[in-house]
Amino acid sequence: MHELSVSSAIVDTAIKHAAGRSVTSVHVRLGTLRQVVPSSLEFFFEIVARDTVCEGAALTYEIVLGRLRCAPCAVEWEVDQPAFRCPECRGSDVGVVAGNELEVESIEVDQKEAALPCTA
Amino acid sequence: MHRVKVRVVEDALDANNTIAQANRADFDRAEVAVVNLMSAPGAGKTTLLEAVLGPGIDGVRAGVLEGDVAGSLDADRLADLHIPVVQLNTDAGFGGECHLDANMVRSALPALDLEALDLLIVENVGNLVCPAEFRIGEDARIMVASVAEGQDKPLKYPLMFRACELVVVNKLDLLEHVRFDLDKFRYYLDQVHPDVQVIATSAYTGEGVDELRAWLAGVPARARVAV
Q1: Partner of A15 at 20 to 30 A CA spacing, among A23, B78, B104, B117?
Q2: Do B129 and A14 touch (CB under 8 A)?
Q3: Residue B3: helix, strand or coil by DSSP?
Q4: Which of A95-99, B166-170, B221-225 shows the lowest per-residue confidence on average (mean pLDDT)?
């Protein structure tokens, strides 16, 4: 249900970077260690984008697999299920390398010729 | 007219995190430590708070910010304990937000006399998914799981069980009536959040409540060290 809030946050981020230009697509990166449901995100995105420069924009996403690293062992592994102990030493000094993303990676905007400078 | 790609690379929740930092700055200025108390609906957050705060925490002036979709039932219960309680309802939006975010907490701050508190406990909206995603400016997060919910919950809601410093297993008094193996729960929890602290309680019988009170009593001192 928080996909509504997350969608609003994504739209707000896109609006900020669009600087008044019309947004045609928004690309986000979603880590598997977060609990965001992509289909639900798309549904709410379309609704909250209405009456903004993001209206009608496509939401595309890339799923980032959870990747953990055991500091003492210097071992990295991918997780598709919750298992946060090191498979080698069974230790708990484990950090998240990837998978926590909830990131607006880029947007595509319609740029008028010789108009606003690109903010990228 | 042509199409331009703009690189953004920004966390979608940056705006929330910025407000959470502003909350945190206000809390630090008033020297009040803040705990975000989370659980599924009906895990016993309010009853635990009654059990802990009824007798009070020695040397700690505690208050509660009560988050609910609607109504003030929980706040009314806690107000009976004669502690500062402020109700925060989330139903002004899309039929009621399922979590508290930093901005909602910020909107409630004027109603709280932070200077008169050492510890503010924010009782989040009952929900095992959404509250874990939104920081509110807290020093510590507690997750309450009751035995009636089942032993496998850490595996099903890993983010929530990871986004906390303490897991409270409540309703121990129901253990004989439900299929809940505490050792199995601890094993599953260890898969998801190795070495997280666990306190087992029954808000009804009082078992473990002193231990939880002692943990809460230590939050302001631990928060000061962290600043």
Answers
A1: B104
A2: no
A3: strand
A4: B221-225
Least confident interval from B88-102, B134-148, B182-196: B88-102
Contact (CB<8Å) A103/B10: yes
Record: contact A102-B12, CB cut-off 8 A? yes
Give this prediction's pTM: 0.91
Identify which has the larger pLDDT, B92 or A42. A42
Alpha helices (runs of H) in chain B, residue ranges in sequence order: 14-29, 45-53, 73-79, 102-108, 153-156, 158-162, 182-192, 209-217, 219-226
Phi, psi values for residue B156, rounded to 5°: -90, -25
User: Which candidate, B148, B179, B180, B142, places its Cα nearest to that of B34?
Assistant: B142
Chain B residues in contact with chain A using a Cβ-Cβ cutoff of 8 Å? 1-16, 94, 97-99, 101, 127, 129-130, 132-134, 154-155, 157-159, 162, 190-195
Retrieve residue B84's tokens.
């500062």
Q: What is the radius of gyration, based on Cα positions, of chain A? A: 18
Cα separation, A17 vs B107, in Å, equals: 27
Domains and CATH numbers, chain B: 14-220 (3.40.50.300)
Helices and strands (H and E) in chain A: how many: 2, 6
- Give the residues across from B60 on adjacent strands: B57
Instruction: Quick: pLDDT tens for B1-13.
Output: 799 999 999 999 9
Instruction: List, in order of start, the domains of chain A with CATH numbers.
Output: 3-110 (3.30.2320.80)
Helix (H, G, I), strand (E, B) or coil at B208: coil
What pLDDT digit, counting tens, does each position of A88-108 carry?
Answer: 999 999 999 999 999 999 999
How many other CB atoms are found less than 10 A from the CB of residue B16? Answer: 20
Collect all residues of chain B within an 8 Å Cβ-Cβ radius of residue A13: 8, 10, 12, 14-15
Q: What percent of chain B has pLDDT over 90?
A: 81
Q: What is the complex's ipTM, to 2 decimals?
A: 0.82
Indicate yes or no: CB of A9 within 8 angstroms of CB of B158: no
